[in-house]
Amino acid sequence: MPSLRIARLFGPRQQIGLRALLRCQRGGPAMELSLVAPMVLALLLAILHTALIFTANQALETAAEAAGRLVMTGQAQQSGWTQAQFQAQACAALPKFMPCAGRLYVDVAPVSSGNFSDAQTGAVALTYGASGAVNTTFSYSVGSRGDIVVVRLMYLWPTVNGPFGLSFVNQQGGNRMLTAASVLKTEYF
Questions:
Q1: Residue by residue, what is the 3-state secondary structure of the chain?
Q2: pTM of the prediction?
C-alpha cells in the first residue's frame, strides 16, 4: 500500500498511509463552509432583493391610494390640475427612497361603462424610443361627480441581476415595472 508524506504544521514529519489520509476529517468543517457559504450568501441576497421590491411596491400602493383620494374628493377636479401637477402630487406621497424623476408614470381614466367590474387595473404597456426613454402616452381624465375612475401608478424600479441568474428585470434599462391602482367613485363635491 502506498504511503504519502504529509508535513504537519507543528510537529515532526511522519508517514501516513493512504487509507488513514482518506479517513482524516481535519479541516472538514472549513471545506464544507467553503462549499455552502456562497449558496447561503446568494440566498440571503435574493431574499433582500425581493424584500426591497416588495417594500417599494407597498409604498407605491400607498401613493396610489393617496392619489386616488385626491380624485375621489374632487381636489384634482376643482384645482384643475394638469397631468404633470397631479403626478407631482402622487410623487409627494412616495417615500424618499423612491425618486420620481423619469420613474413615476400616472394614468387616470374614468370607466366608460360606469361599472366597477369593467375597470382596467393592469399595467400599461410601455413603449420606448431609440434613446431608451419611455414615449407611451398616458390618459389623464379625472372625471366628474359620481364617475368611477381608475388611478394607476407605474414606477420603474432600478434593479440588477441577482446571483445564479435571478432576475427581476421586466423592462428596458435594467428596470422592473411596479404598478398600483386605485378604483374609486368620485364624491358629489
A1: CCEEEECCCCCCCEEEEHHHHHHCCCCHHHHHHHHHHHHHHHHHHHHHHHHHHHHHHHHHHHHHHHHHHHHHCCHHHHHCCCHHHHHHHHHHCCCCCCCCCCCEEEEEEECCCCCHHHCCCCCCCCCECCCCCECCCCCECCCCCCCEEEEEEEEEEECCCCHHHCCCCCEHHHEEEEEEEEEEECCCC
A2: 0.79
